[in-house]
Design a protein that fits this description.
The complex is a heterodimer. By secondary structure, chain A is an alpha/beta fold. Helices cover about 30% and strands about 25% of the residues of chain A. In chain A, the strands form 2 sheets. A 9-stranded mixed β-sheet of chain A has the order 7-6-5-8-4-1-2-3-9, sandwiched between helices. A 5-stranded parallel β-sheet of chain A has the order 12-11-13-14-15. The longest helix of chain A has 16 residues. Chain B has one domain: Rossmann fold (3-Layer(aba) Sandwich). Chain B is about 30% helix and about 30% strand. In chain B, the strands form 2 sheets. A 9-stranded mixed β-sheet of chain B has the order 9-8-7-10-6-1-4-5-11, with helices on both faces. In chain B, helix 2 packs across helix 5 and helix 3 crosses helix 4. The chains are: A alpha/beta, B alpha/beta.
Amino acid sequence: MSQTIVVPVEVDADGGVNLMSLEALTFARRLGSSLHAVVVARTGKPSSEEIAQLGEQGVSTVHVVDDERLSSYAPAGWAAAIVSVVRSAAADTVLASGTPRGMELLAHVAVRLDVAMAANVVAIESADPLVVTRQVVGGTALEDTALGSSLGDAVAVLTVAGHACDPAKAESATSPSVEVAALELTDADLRARVARTEQGEPDQSGALKGARVVVGAGRGAGSSDGFGDLEELTRLLGGALGVSRVVTSLGWRPHHEQVGQTGSRVSPDLYVACGISGAIQHWSGMSSSKTIVAINTDPDAPMVTKAHYAVIGDLHKIVPAVIEEIRRRRG
Amino acid sequence: MADILVCIKRVPDVSGEALLTADGLHVDARHVGYTVSPHELCAVELAVQVAGDTGGSVTVLTVGSADSVEKLRDAVAVGATGAVLVEVDDPDAFGPRDVSEVIAEVVEADAAAGTSYDLVLLGNDAADTGDFQVGVRLAYRLDRPVVVGASVLAVDGGTASITADGPDGTDIFEVALPAVVTVLEGGVEPRYPSVVGRMKAKKAAIDTRSTAVAPAGGGRVTLKLPPQQPSQVEVLGEGPEAAPKLVDLFESLGVLSR
């Protein structure tokens, strides 16, 4: 059983601990009770609200980095900070959410600690010896893999797949102390560093990943001109538009709207899959949606058989009728 | 002039449900065929573009069985100028640390033979094992900077300008070469091979090598399939007549209340 866990946490640009980091903290409590959070990719002290959020997760110590050299994102430098906390806390586990940055930082951390790393873990198969279950082959298969002490490694390094658990507060909240991480950076740690960030094109997939409702569109949209009604339905449902890989491959929609194995993973309350057959690559990106509705001409399409609800037919006839019905009820 | 090594992997083309071998240790790909991940196809495309812009070369590398040659030829057909197969009997026996060691071996051997790669490109993560770490391990092994998740890449003299989506916008890294970069699908559209490219690929020499790396493997205990849920779909109706029922559902879920 793990005793001390270091959890790198990400904070959102507009403040607050990232939802996926809250999931990682919730998951971490299954492995151990002594939680250290490291705020990554942002220097300086977190807000009191953020510290309170981490306290609600049972975090004992919040480690922050206060070094001008990391004010621009430098993954190796941030990994050095995490490793420094691992050593000072004598941690036996490092666990982060499986976001792009979580994956990147923990890969660096694993190399620096000369240990294995397991990506996209969904469950703990056995705590002692440590065996974790993780997604492989784009979520079509699961792998039980030995980790940490089971492999003779001093530290177990793992990332948690998005939506592997619902974020929940710890039974009793803590009042975390805040410590500045000791940091020794070498020139090599700063060789790859963000030179500038172009704000004009923010990661628009962010809205998609956090949306409560996602309207998904696939080949059934027919052409790049086939999205007008889908966009209107998305607007009426206050959601975000997501598409399958074929839609971006055909150039109908931009890549940041892609849901699936090589796009965004989403977990909305409602996913309305319009004209999407349901290839596993797409399914693995949205299967944790709470309610799935399929609109499809083929009653045997995988998306239809796996959905909770379905309407059989042409989305170009059904979606306008749905829009009209919503407008009628709203008066 | 940028000389680029691109690492690709032949993986089972699983788009439906995966099948496992009887021992539970491998994906059974006998009935589905093999492919290369979209991330790696984009890496090949970026390499061919950069080499074209700078008058450099593109060598494509895979660590795999003899059957992987076909995927190397596909890369030559779209513009790679050289192909290296490090032939191993059981590619699944090589964990991420082993694979990074084999790639490092190739980089060092080629440097000793006169070709120093300015860039080593890999996919962001392998489509089968999804380890998300071989590129980073390789970079540390070679003592080079690494950027992951690149969508666009340009080389100017001794510097690479690398574009990657970040949480707050589009991050631009300026990195001194030589460097390691992992590529995420979406920044470029992989080209289709021309007939001339196909002919060239057919005749291309494959530099087949063995490795001195004794694989330690990963930690795999077993593979298993996610539990299959029986279909519980409730069909609300057919065609536009079903719209009121669908809107009833939206109302009951509270998504129309705002």
